[in-house]
Amino acid sequence: MTATPVAEWAAELSIRADFAETRRASRWLRVTGEARGVPEECITRLDHCMEEALANVIAHGGPGARAADIAIGLEVRCDAGLSAAVLNISDAGIAFDPTRAPAPARPGSLAEARPGGLGIQVMRSYADRIGYTRVAERNRLAIMVTW
Amino acid sequence: MEFNNRRYGEVVVVAPAGRIDHASAEDFRLRLAPALEHCSEGRDRVVLDFSAVEYISSVGLRVLMLAAKQVKAQKGAIVIAAMQPVVKEIFDISRFNYVFAAFPGLREAVADLSTQALALYDAG
Fold it and tell me: Which tens digits make up the pLDDT trace of A109-140?
């Protein structure tokens, strides 16, 4: 089972690239995940990843990201006894592949702690797999959790 | 976001409630700022009571990191208490347990900062 973004997936929610919209996305994810049988703990992990992914788009995606909606979809797969939920996010921002971003230094003390890079670390910690492609001038991110 | 702050002697308990995410982080920072301003050697000490915080994202951790650095520069003391499991998990993932002194309960946090404040806390 891979988290490679598939060529076609159904956008089920569109939000503006605005921090005020991220909570609407979070509520949608919870309701939709529950309705599709995704365990609570997996929804929470996806919620962490989505919050950080959307924040990256809104804060760093540039004017292109802010000019177009962000599309989101949730797909649930079952294969050979393994279940997975894949959260798909598509945005029109600057090309950014979080799977290739350098791992941030992990602080061992307050003096070593640096702001920045925490979001990528959170996504990598909570997702089982992350896939990325750039298609038609849009970033496509697929975040998978399994149970 | 909702706050339920109170004081026990020189210990100020700052108690936010709800989600600390990208939608609320700036409000959290602004509401925390007055307590940080008075948190220095010989003045107030701060406990962040996180018992009602149900979620924190990286931007919230960033606010906490900068708060800890500010307080350290002022030679003050700030600790965190009563994190819910989902918040403690992200703390551990981000290794913020090395950045912030954390206590399982509010009483332990108050006790760590001041015996006088603990007496006031216990007196209710």
Answer: 787 777 777 889 899 999 999 999 999 999 99
Which residues does chain A have within 8 Å of residue B86's beta carbon, measured at their own beta carbons?
Answer: 44
The answer to the question of residue A1 being in a domain is no
Residues of chain B contacting A108 with CB distance shorter than 8 Å: 95, 98
Say if domain B2-123 classifies as CATH 2.40.50.140. Answer: no
Closest alpha carbon within chain A to B73:
A111
List for chain B the helix, strand, coil content (%; round to 5).
45, 25, 30
Record: contact B69-A51, CB cut-off 8 A: no
Secondary structure class of A18 (helix, strand, coil): coil
- B66·A115 Cβ contact <8 A: yes
Q: Is B9 left (phi over 0), alpha (psi -120 to 50) or beta?
A: left
Give the residue numbers spanning the domain of A62.
Answer: 6-146
Residue type present at position B97? N
ipTM surpassing 0.95: no
B43-58 tens-digit pLDDT: 999 999 999 999 999 9
The reply to whether the predicted model has a pTM over 0.80 is yes
